[in-house]
TrEMBL record:
Superkingdom: Bacteria
Keyword Repeat: no
Protein name: SMC-Scp complex subunit ScpB
InterPro entries per UniProt: ScpB_csome_segregation (IPR005234), WH-like_DNA-bd_sf (IPR036388), WH_DNA-bd_sf (IPR036390)
Gene: scpB
Any Pfam family hit: SMC_ScpB
SUPFAM superfamilies in alphabetical order: Winged helix' DNA-binding domain
Length: 202
């Protein structure tokens, strides 16, 4: 393994570690002797600091507490903090939250049954919830072919609960879903290809 190979392998490891890594740990990770790793570290430090003829990078390789890790340069801390602070996760729309609640309490449930409860088309909202990984397709009805949906473990993580049994007991407020007939389910536009759009927010 050449010195360049060791340096490249070190960079790959250093990009993903969350805690400073000792020379011994890094040597084991890249499969190289400790002296070779020490030399490669010194080379990378000089490279990032612009001492090898290149530009000073926006990050640096710093030794902290006996270990090595990549850090943002101090003069760029404010820039990074401002960027991270502005990256608030996009929130679900009210329509998506309502649809998610219906699915959580009535699962397994089809799109038509959810639409019957909410009295609106839910195609786009269901697609959003699927894309977010909050719901999943459980199975298809043997007679109608309608997809039944349920929530995922990701929802439990977001809510900070261990199981759906910990949800507030408000399911009686959602009564009526069982009255939706299978014939009606097949005939609905959302099961026929989702051609109807009532402007549900994504």
């Amino acid at each position: 393994m050449t010195a360049t190979d060791v340096a490249r392998r070190l960079e790959a490891i250093l990009l993903i570690v969350e805690e400073p890594q000792s020379l011994v740990s890094l040597a084991a990770a890249v499969g190289a002797p400790v002296p070779a790793v020490r030399q490669a570290i010194e080379t990378l430090v000089d490279d990032y600091d612009g001492k090898s003829g290149g530009p000073v990078r926006g990050f640096e390789l710093r030794e902290v507490g006996g270990g090595w890790r990549l850090y943002v340069r101090e003069e760029l801390d404010d820039l990074v903090s401002e960027f991270v602070g502005g990256q608030a996760p996009s929130r679900l729309s009210q329509a998506a939250l309502e649809t998610l609640a219906v699915i959580a309490y009535k699962q397994p449930v089809t799109r038509s049954q959810v639409a019957s409860i909410r009295a609106v088309n839910v195609d786009s909202v269901v697609r959003t919830l699927l894309a977010r990984g909050l719901i999943t397709e459980l199975f298809a009805d043997a007679e109608t072919g309608a997809i039944n949906y349920g929530t995922t473990d990701a929802l439990l993580v977001h809510l900070g609960i261990n199981s759906l049994d910990e949800l507030p007991h408000i399911s009686p407020l959602l009564d009526g879903v069982d009255e939706v007939s299978r014939a009606d389910e097949v005939s609905r536009a959302d099961e026929a290809g989702g051609t109807m759009d009532e402007g549900i927010r994504r």
